[in-house]
TrEMBL record:
Protein name (record): Cholinergic receptor nicotinic beta 2 subunit
InterPro entries: Neur_chan_lig-bd, Neur_chan_lig-bd_sf, Neur_channel, Neuro-gated_channel_TM_sf, Neuro_actylchol_rec, Neurotrans-gated_channel_TM, Neurotransmitter_ion_chnl_CS, Nicotinic_acetylcholine_rcpt
Organism: Hucho hucho
Pfam families xrefs: Neur_chan_LBD (PF02931), Neur_chan_memb (PF02932)
Chain segments carrying region Disordered: 257-282
Source species taxonomy: Eukaryota, Metazoa, Chordata, Craniata, Vertebrata
Tagged with keyword Ion transport: yes
Length: 374
């Protein structure tokens, strides 16, 4: 009436089924447990073993990556005519699985492979599809990187008169460089793909470098003066009339009033010039000569007053042109601010949405494989 008996596994013949893509060279099981021999001649042997296999690491979407580690089992010396491997279920068993703090098992599909060119070949292959838990890397890498990148936006909002504009740009660039060195120590070294975090850091470093270049240009425009640069008409048309309205900017009231006053003064000078040109007998020259004869000191006083008035007009014109250059610099700053925000937000969203389009396999189920021998 005995249906099963347990015998030491070393006392019976054992199939030499091993992991072919082994990584440590240990092909034997760690403990030879007893084998269960049934009355019908079937033998059940389930030894515990730890397998180490080499897998190709995909770092394209790190830290939102999904890995597929393949483990291929077959007999070392016997072919299909002597040992036939049969896949009892399409998925591996997870009865004794211990949850990991870094990985989630998505699926454990199994398949039986045959070679049409070699009828004696057969193997059992399992695909361990695992997905990384991104919480640790999100808190320690991605969020600080995004916050540092957002500081680069403040560069365009910082006034050009502030001397810390370039310092802020370079500090943000140095911080991103430190993060890039940190990621190079975390990500597995491979030249097949660039990790997602590395792409984002390079993207932000390019943006910050662009902000440094634009800040240099803005500072150059801000500190221009009438003695060094002449404002072209197209600059006045684009940066003083067209772009401020599109960028929701309004020119200061004092500048507008100063321009109106300057235009009114020029019109008055033209009218006076017309009257002077049309006077009879030399007009002002004759009057000045008569005043000079009547009061010799009055002519010098009039010349001094005229010199002071002309000097004040020149200073007012120069100051007005300098303020126009400063306003042009403000418009350029505001223009690049909106461009930087749009590019930064769209690039960040576009990059971190890529892992959502990975092809995930269905949830893991349970099963096991057995081997039969003749």
């Amino acid at each position: 009436g005995m249906e099963k008996v347990r015998l030491p596994s070393k006392h019976i013949w054992l199939p030499d089924v091993v992991l072919y893509n082994n990584a440590d060279g240990m092909y034997e099981v760690s403990f030879y447990s007893n084998a269960v021999v049934s009355h019908d001649g079937s033998i059940f042997w389930l030894p515990p073993a730890i397998y180490k296999s080499a897998c190709k690491i995909e770092v394209k979407h790190f830290p939102f990556d999904q890995q597929n580690c393949t483990m291929r089992f077959r007999s070392w010396t016997y072919d299909r005519t002597e040992i036939d491997l049969i896949l009892r279920s399409d998925v591996a068993s997870m009865d004794d699985f211990t949850p990991s703090g870094e990985w989630d098992i998505i699926a454990l599909p199994g398949r039986r492979n045959e070679n049409p060119a070699d009828p004696t070949y057969v193997d059992i292959t399992y695909d361990f599809i695992i997905r990384r838990k991104p919480l640790f890397y999100t808190i320690n890498l991605i969020i600080p990187c995004v916050l540092i990148t957002s500081l680069a936006i403040l560069v365009f909002y910082l006034p050009s008169d502030c001397g810390e504009k370039m310092t802020l740009c370079i500090s943000v660039l140095l911080a991103l460089t430190v993060f890039l060195l940190l990621i190079s120590k975390i990500v597995p070294p491979t030249s097949l793909d660039v990790p997602l975090v590395g792409k984002y850091l390079m993207f932000t470093m390019v943006l910050v470098t662009f902000s440094i270049v634009t800040s240099v240009c803005v500072l150059n425009v801000h500190h221009r003066s009438p003695t060094t640069h002449t404002m072209p008409p197209w600059v006045k048309l684009v940066f003083l009339n067209k772009l401020p309205a599109l960028l929701f900017m309004r020119q200061p009231r004092n500048s507008c009033e100063r321009q109106k006053l300057r235009q009114r003064r020029r019109a008055q000078e033209q009218r006076e010039g017309g009257r002077d040109g049309g006077s009879v007998g030399g007009g002002p020259a004759l009057t000045q000569a008569v005043l000079g004869q009547a009061c010799p000191g009055l002519e010098e006083a009039v010349d001094g007053v005229r010199f002071i008035a002309n000097h004040m007009k020149t200073e007012d014109d120069d100051q007005s042109v300098s303020e126009d250059w400063k306003y042009v610099a403000m418009v350029i700053d505001r223009l690049f601010l909106w461009i930087f925000i749009i590019v930064c937000v769209s690039g960040t969203v576009g990059m971190f949405l890529q892992p959502l389009f990975q092809n995930y396999t269905g949830p893991a189920q349970r099963g096991k494989w057995v081997c039969l021998w003749n």
